Amino acid sequence: xxxxxxxxxxxxxxxxxxxxxxxxxxxxxxxxxxxxxxxxxxxxxxxxxxxxxxxxxxxxxxxxxxxxxxxxxxxxxxxxxxxxxxxxxxxxxxxxxxxxxxxxxxxxxxxxxxxxxxxxxxxxxxxxxxxxxxxxxxxxxxxxxxxxxxxxxxxxxxxxxxxxxxxxxxxxxxxxxxxxxxxxxxxxxxxxxxxxxxxxxxxxxxxxxxxxxxxxxxxxxxxxxxxxxxxxxxxxxxxxxxxxxxxxxxxxxxxxxxxxxxxxxxxxxxxxxxxxxxxxxxxxxxxxxxxxxxxxxxxxxxxxxxxxxxxxxxxxxxxxxxxxxxxxxxxxxxxxxxxxxxxxxxxxxxxxxxxxxxxxxxxxxxxxxxxxxxxxxxxxxxxxxxxxxxxxxxxxxxxxxxxxxxxxxxxxxxxxxxxxxxxxxxxxxxxxxxxxxxxxxxxxxxxxxxxxxxxxxxxxxxxxxxxxxxxxxxxxxxxxxxxxxxxxxxxxxxxxxxxxxxxxxxxxxxxxxxxxxxxxxxxxxxxxxxxxxxxxxxxxxxxxxxxxxxxxxxxxxxxxxxxxxxxxxxxxxxxxxxxxxxxxxxxxxxxxxxxxxxxxxxxxxxxxxxxxxxxxxxxxxxxxxxxxxxxxxxxxxxxxxxxxxxxxxxxxxxxxxxxxxxxxxxxxxxxxxxxxxxxxxxxxxxxxxxxxxxxxxxxxxxxxxxxxxxxxxxxxxxxxxxxxxxxxxxxxxxxxxxxxxxxxxxxxxxxxxxxxxxxxxxxxxxxxxxxxxxxxxxxx
Length: 780
Known about the structure:
Blueprint: H1 2-11, E1 20-22, H2 25-33, H3 57-63, E2 70-77, H4 83-93, H5 114-119, E3 126-132, E4 135-141, H6 149-156, E5 161-167, H7 174-185, E6 190-195, H8 204-214, E7 219-221, E8 223-226, E9 234-237, E10 242-246, E11 256-260, H9 267-287, H10 289-297, H11 308-320, E12 325-329, H12 338-348, H13 360-363, E13 368-377, E14 381-390, E15 392-393, E16 398-401, E17 406-409, E18 412-417, E19 420-423, E20 427-428, E21 432-436, E22 446-448, H14 451-467, H15 472-479, E23 490-495, H16 502-515, E24 520-523, E25 530-534, H17 537-551, E26 556-557, E27 561-562, E28 565-568, E29 572-582, E30 585-597, E31 606-609, H18 611-614, H19 619-632, E32 646-655, H20 661-678, E33 681-695, H21 699-708, E34 712-719, E35 722-730, H22 737-744, E36 750-760, H23 763-773
Parallel strand pairs: 2-4, 2-5, 5-6, 6-12, 7-12, 31-32
Antiparallel strand pairs: 1-19, 3-4, 8-9, 9-10, 10-11, 13-14, 13-22, 14-21, 15-20, 16-17, 16-22, 18-19, 18-21, 23-25, 23-26, 23-27, 24-25, 28-33, 29-30, 30-32, 33-35, 33-36, 34-35
Helix pairs in contact: 6-7, 9-10, 9-11, 14-15, 19-20
């Protein structure tokens, strides 16, 4: 074995040793304790994955697997559909863990944060790399909670395929719709896994129907369940007409029987499977012309003669074209159906070279990578997750950050295994890497090998844009494709334990912001307090908890408040003059402008110039005007909330020679504030889409409670024994709703929230809000 290793060392001189940095030793010790005595310790965390006994061949595949054998996939679903449990089973069967982790026990690999283990939910996306039957799989377990949708968004955009996990008893749920829309946006091929087939009330037919109706997708049934609920014992492979049975003696689910369906023993099941296979062939033939020619030509008389490989290749093409989604089923918790899911991932989801990324042609094989996630490690500093689209990345190499316009050096390169990492000497296109040493790179930054390489790519993109009569900025947008960060809906003040600890708090918040771009931190200009802005109650609670645990700061949070917006109801004009003498210089600006409401929602003000102003307006002055407008719209006259849905037209601008741009900005800003005070003002509040799943017995109290919360019910659906209440409710009325709902329904109901839009408050509610904010007790 050592001679083989020496040979390997000659080929790759830079590799001194591949070692694992254990960040979570306690978890490994715990897993060792749970090992059954008869399990051979064939795999060690201190050696590279795949290096078991004399198996040297996988060492080379760790460094540079063939691109056709790489699968970058994500696991996505509604909260509590079984994403993390499915991931744990995948890791166990692929040989990366030696014992089965459990979300309820808090010992899973991908949920490694203390908060995740305590709450039994996924908060951050954890990246895991493993091998399955000669394929390299980079898998990301994403959160299902609405407060952490940005985690899903920023990981989906670097994936080539996804596995959507469904609770077989519930089908498509609220957050499933959200993540499905996100996958549609990034054009990601996906397969569906109907999990929890062993759960009471599980229904394969219902779950498939909900995929067809709610997601408007075409399900391809590749498997049929053998039993449902407690009777679930295995699956039937429709493509190969075999049944897969997990026997009781094999508690961990590693051993299962694959038997062909026979006329003698399984006549009824064989008939059902043959019908399902014929339906599948017809469905695929409708969607794939190449396969349709094959079916109509050679096999039109008898579909049974159609080779399995031909059908699988056609399903792969259909999945890649996103015209249909393969559907599989199983029970991750009961260790059934996970190995066929892994086979489907490698067989039907695309490799990086099968995805068409338009911007790659501009790089001509040079390095092009995207930083999609930043973590902060106390020992190593910032850890940046990168998807490499083309070229190669090596430790100690300089890279150029296009967004930050700076050059940085990668000190080390790691393969991510949740919170444990394997150091490697290089990584090629198609892989997901973890880099150490990048101090300025943030989420959404595009990485190139050098500034000259980036400029050359930009020139090629510009030429391509001109050929196709496109704007140059569209080419730039493709080069610098980032993640759209949603606006926060909650905010609260945060205070350090003492003034002396304020720098420590600032540092902690700076690190957390690099990790999580949906967290915004600002300074209140009036009180000087630090204000946290987040996506929900749980989001802010988790941030507060992390500051305490990871940075040792006992901070104090102010009351949670809703992020309102403001707008105006009528058009107003205003004029303002600013005349100041600083030293021997006179600064004089006169501005006349009009502010009016617009019907189409717009978070930023729409800026227009009258013809007389725009003719000879210098670019410097224009930038100063726009800075003044944007700063004025950050604080409205009613609550100090941002102004939206307004258009501002500049009618007149007189600038004295020598006037500074700062004075121009200040005058424009003051003029807008004057106009806003004169106008009729309106508060806008965030309105949430709400979906409550409740048993029929508790429906009445839940509806009565929502009526008190100014809720609007759209419809009430029936999902087996449960009722699904779908409607809208103002965010201000839903704070603390989880506790109330638990009390009303004896803990049996669940709910999901998602921001819908901002809507105008009625005059009475607005008056109540303003009086409460101004400290008055009585309603105005």
